[in-house]
Amino acid sequence: MGFEQKIQAMRIVRLDDEYHFKHFDCGDNDLNEFLLKDAKDYQRRLLAVTYLIENEDDIVAYFSLANDKISLNESTKSVWRKIKRNFPRSKHRRDYPAVKIGRLAVNKSYQGLQIGTIVMNYLKNLFKSRSRTGCAYLTVDALSKAVGFYEKNGFDYLCDKVSGQDYPTRLMYFDINRLK
Which regions of the chain does DSSP assign to beta strands (E)? Predict the structure, then answer.
């Protein structure tokens, strides 16, 4: 099977305890280890659900999702005002529902083919049109090396701070209502 047929034959599979992992290496040990050693446990403990994008031979990419929220405590006042403007005054809340992209990784063999952007577009449209729960935003704690990817995919900064020391991250969000 040629490379293009492998990409066309991709499917999304929800990880479960019986899944036998196919080849996956994204070039980042932390992301590889999460998938191969932690993802099933996160799922059993109801911390995150992991989805695999696979073809016949490989796991092409994966992403993990968890419930989240955006609140004033996590954002700057100017961002919070921007978020509240999306809702009528009578619907203002102390927090707004979100889904966190906990992990997202693309197999090295498929990097550079816009797979990450395809996943982002899939998630945006999924929560806009078929979400089973209220979800106004996608959030991510973007690793420093991934911030540019999320910026290109329409994510904005929720706060000015960089968190963590070993793996500094930036809290970012995407307003799903922008997809009107």
Answer: 11-14, 49-54, 59-71, 95-106, 137-143, 156-157, 169-175
Query: Average pLDDT, stretch 27-54?
Result: 96
Q: What is the dihedral of CA 89, 91, 92, 95, to 10 degrees?
A: -170
Question: How buried is 91 (Cβ within 10 angstroms: 0-12 exposed, 13-18 middle, 19+ buried)?
Answer: exposed
Cβ proximity of 58 and 23 under 8 Å: yes
Q: What is the pLDDT of residues 144-175, one digit of tens each?
A: 889 999 999 999 998 776 665 566 788 999 99
The backbone torsions φ and ψ at residue 9, rounded to the nearest 5 degrees and listed phi first, read: -90, 15
Residue type, 117: T
The answer to whether the CB of 57 falls within 8 A of the CB of 23 is yes
Q: Which domains does the chain carry?
A: 3-179 (3.40.630.30)
